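B., you asked whether I could sanity-check this one before it goes into the benchmark set. Here's the sequence:
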Amino acid sequence: MALRRRVLLQRLLIGAAVLTAAMNLNATQAAFATLRSTLGMTQFSSVQLQHVPQRAGHGLVQRGPCACGLAAGIVCCALTRGCRVPWPAVRTRLCAVGDSVAAGTAMKLFSPAKINLFLRIIRRREDGYHDLASLFHTVAFGDELQLEVLPEGAEKDELKCNLPGVPVDESNLVIRALNLFREKSGVKRHFGIKLEKSIPAQAGMGGGSSNAATAFFGANALCGNPASPQELLEWGDDPVIGSDATFFLSEGTAYCTGRGEIVTPVDALKIRPDLGIYLVKPAYGISTPACFKAMDLKSLSSVDPEDLLKTFQDKGTSHDSWVNDLERPAFQVNPNLGELKTFLASKELGFEAVLMSGSGSTIYCVGDPQGGAANFEAATKERFDIEGIWKTQLMRRPSPSEWYSQV
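And here's what the prediction gave me:
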């Protein structure tokens, strides 16, 4: 009877653990403790389902150990005191999570750009930063980042990028993010990173911060999710990986204050699902320090950012309340950018709204141009020196536990 009772308890607890994993709840450790105390076990480890790729968010974990919920859920039973899981169809082998994740485990993740739907500068702080208030939103244009777990003996991360000139040492925000993840989680593993860049530099679209946040999420997923989504947000609140990185760890729409690191999630806006966003990046960038240096605090907008936020929440993008306090200083740094915005905002093109993102130099246009996209692109490139024009749309994460999925 004792043996039968033990087997029954095993089955019940395994089922509960699998259900917990499927629901993506952070109760794996509780399952460990319950199983150990109930069955009198003193040692346990996790297991791997062979030949079953697992999903962590929207990144596919390839051929590696089950580093996330399911591996942590189907735990212990086969590995203590000679007990065996009575399901022969499930083939298992020893594999601890975290530091013991198998080398070669990999995932690809989309790293989105962002735009600022409004940006108010509130004041200059004593530490040299500026307090701001801004509504950030991710868009379905961005980079691709692949993470692969290196062998246990690896002592540093290995970053490769398709764009020449992008630093691949510890000055890169991706490497800084992985260092921060190791510091916060206690996991010591290093990673190989392949970064395919599409987001331009000095564009005001948060490319580097997005890459850092994506690497942060991916490392956490590959190592068995030592941090919950909320803990990941808290861990990412560190200027070492950029002021915008915390935003990208939200669900994609957020009211950001402080220097940008205080992130208040905002529900999905009331927008048309087919709303087009055109990103227009001139062939030059705008230095953020130069932009802030040129800023005159007395000439800033006086509109209350809370009122702007309410307008976007109530009306989506169907209004005239589009404000970016950094436009004027950016146009002083490079007057050509001001001329570009004037052209894009002309009645002849007919966009619903036109605004610079961040400190520039990208200017985005909401809606679709009169005369069609091809004519708009040709006319813009004929008149201005343009690096790229990309049509995209606003996007969000499916849930706090899933990453952005490229549209």
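One thing to flag: The chain is about 30% helix and 20% strand. Otherwise nothing jumped out at me.
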